[in-house]
Amino acid sequence: MNATGTSKSETGVLVVGAGPVGLTMACELLRRGIDCRVIEKSDAPSQTSKALGIQSRTLEVFENMGVIEEFLARGLKVTGADVQEGETLLFQPDTRYLKAPYPYILSLPQSDTELLLLGLLHELGGEVEWSRELAGFGQERDRIVAFVGGDRADATEEISAKWLVGCDGAHSRVRHTLGVSFEGSAYEEEFLLADVDLDWNRSRDKAHAWLHGDGIFLSLPLPGDRRWRLVSDIAPTEGEEAPQASVELFQELMAERAKDTKTNISNPTWMSNFKISRRMITEYRRGHVFLMGDAAHIHSPVGGQGMNTGIQDAYNLGWKLALVIKGKAPDELLDTYEEERLPVAREVLKSTNASTNLAVSRNPVLRFVRDRTLSHVMGSGFVQETLLKKVSQLDVSYRKSSLSKSYKSPRMLLPGRRQDGFGLKDWLNLRGGPKAGDRAPQGRCLRYPSREETTLFQEFEGTSFTLLLFDGPARTEEGYANLTGIAQKVEELWGEDVKTCVVIAGYDKPEGLDWDGPVLLDVERELHETYNTAGAEVLYLIRPDGYVGFRSQPAMGDRLLRYLGDLLSTTPEAGESGERYAKGYADKTSTTR
Ligand SMILES: Cc1cc2nc3c(=O)[nH]c(=O)nc-3n(C[C@H](O)[C@H](O)[C@H](O)COP(=O)(O)OP(=O)(O)OC[C@H]3O[C@@H](n4cnc5c(N)ncnc54)[C@H](O)[C@@H]3O)c2cc1C
After folding, report:
1. pLDDT classification of 590: cutoffs 50, 70, 90
2. How far is CA 284 from CA 25, 310, 317, 473, in A?
3. Is there an atom of ligand 1 within 6 Å of 294 CB?
């Protein structure tokens, strides 16, 4: 402590805000052994239920973080909705169209989500410093000096940090201090919500919504007997304040919009009026400061995207920042955070705006068309799957990122150059399967030699990259020698950061495979089909956040080593980077995004 009473301390990373996004960020760093502190201006964990819907992709993130069982034990699985106009059923979205390990939305109050993440933080040795408000910060060379409890002269503490992550919500002090603009506009409607008991017998694995000329009436099931969240909107009336949310008002809205005069609403535990805006920043990183979650983007809660998008911001930055701090990756890797996450937020703002306008529209023509066409459109399985993939955030992809690269051999197009056994048919087939930047899909297989059942997501658990080397249906000696060479080289150079798994289309490890590391037996060929392997062996490098970073078809060791060398700042020794291990031929190829 100095003469003015300000104590001084240091940390590696300072996370500002202990909402769901700040907690995820801190857990992602601590999981990787990175020192970080979390400061929060409230004096205790939040009690409000705000975000209820945990989307399928976020559940996969929680699986990877090792907390999925706790979430599933507390939450309620919601598999669809009945959307009505009065008593007429208009359409029924059904999450079972999702081909994913968690084909539902998990309903759980945000306060519970935060408590579970806080539990994980404690397990990892972290803690939240409550009642500690960031007042501002300055930059000194390559460090941040954060003022806590008061600005500069009045600060009770100055924290010197190498990195600062602003997870401090919609009114972010970090964003204001940086002077980053938060562009957008507000909606006119005022929304009302109430968490209540309902004595109706409607199914609790669905949401129930009524579209009405005056606005919506929405009920979402909450965990616990008879618990529901009610939401309605009120059109603005010139010169008049919107009425405050109350049991009586919701009872009236239910009678008017849902034509339900029998159901009794009781036991309100939270009621609120709120207005919504759509705004986002255009700069996710400035020097050693990052913004994420509501500090970076806010929008309508329709579709339950906000918290989910923020958690995935943190999941995207966590592994990158850890690698850079450990000196294992260049600083430029951090620029891909904005490159990948800003377009996702832009798309979320666009789609939530469209669905909000559609849901609360008071334009009779638009409503007529909406109500008449939606039932037909939503009757299509394809439309349902496409929409649900979007809402569940399973379709988030980083294909355009500079981190997403792939290689496809052009050799078979040259007459007489088909030594790699990779034919034109195979080449054409490779249009399927996940592309570089896509989420790596799930699949079941067996571990060798125990033959215990496992899944790819179980194999991805932990904090490293996963290299999947598929032998493909050709199963040649030359192919196994190639895979052995790649696996051994990657193990030698990046064994600590890349877990290599050879995936065999069969029930036994082939003799030609001289690899003592993980071998997965794809007995049913489910993985080979999902990853669309063709004639020759192929490889996929899965990033720590579960997206395909690089794929090579056929599996070319030199291409992979170059990719990893760029990403992990380690260049393989000269002379070894240009060969395909079994045959040692150098291919004149191009790496494409
Ligand atoms: C009614 C409602 C329903 C919603 N429903 C959903 C849904 O179903 N699904 C969904 O995904 N999203 C939903 N959302 C949005 C979701 O609640 C937010 O997107 C989410 O809370 C954002 O998390 P965050 O951690 O970025 O910010 P916040 O949750 O706002 O957390 C920020 C934290 O930072 C702290 N803080 C602020 N300033 C400082 C400072 N200067 N110093 C220290 N600490 C500070 C705050 O006290 C707070 O704890 C809903 C929102 C509302 C209001």
Report:
1. very low
2. 15, 12, 11, 44
3. yes
Domain range annotation of the chain: 7-52+109-182+281-362, 185-277, 405-567
b/e sequence 3-20, b meaning 16+ C-beta within 10 Å = eeebeeeebebbbbbbbb
Q: Is the pTM of this model over 0.90?
A: yes
For ligand 1, is residue 167 a contact (CB within 6 Å)?
yes
Residue 426 has pLDDT above 70, yes or no: no
Tell me which CATH code domain 405-567 carries. Answer: 3.40.30.10
> Which positions ≥6 away from 195 have C-beta within 8 Å?
49, 109, 222, 227, 228, 229, 230, 268, 269, 270, 271
Nearest to 39 by CA among 176, 132, 172: 132
Residue with tokens 């803690």: 127
**Domain covering 185-277, topology:** Alpha-Beta Plaits (3.30.70)
Write phi, then psi, for 246 (nearest 5 degrees). Answer: -155, 165
State which H helix or E strand residue 157 sits in: strand 157-166
- The best mutation among 294, 311, 317, 348 to test binding of ligand 1, ranked by most ligand atoms within 8 Å of the C-beta, falls on 294
- Do residues 169 and 213 make contact, with C-beta atoms less than 8 angstroms apart? no
Residues 6+ positions from 332 with CB-CB distance below 8 Å: none
Average pLDDT over the chain, rounded to an integer:
89
Tokens of 338: 């904005």
Measure the CA–CA gap between 582 and 572, rounded to whole angstroms: 18
Is the model's pLDDT at 587 over the cut of 60?
no
For 211, 217, 361, 364, the CA distances from 86, given in Å and listed in that order, are: 8, 10, 16, 16
* C-beta of 313 in contact with ligand 1 (< 6 A): no
Superfamily grouping for domain 7-52+109-182+281-362: FAD/NAD(P)-binding domain (3.50.50.60)
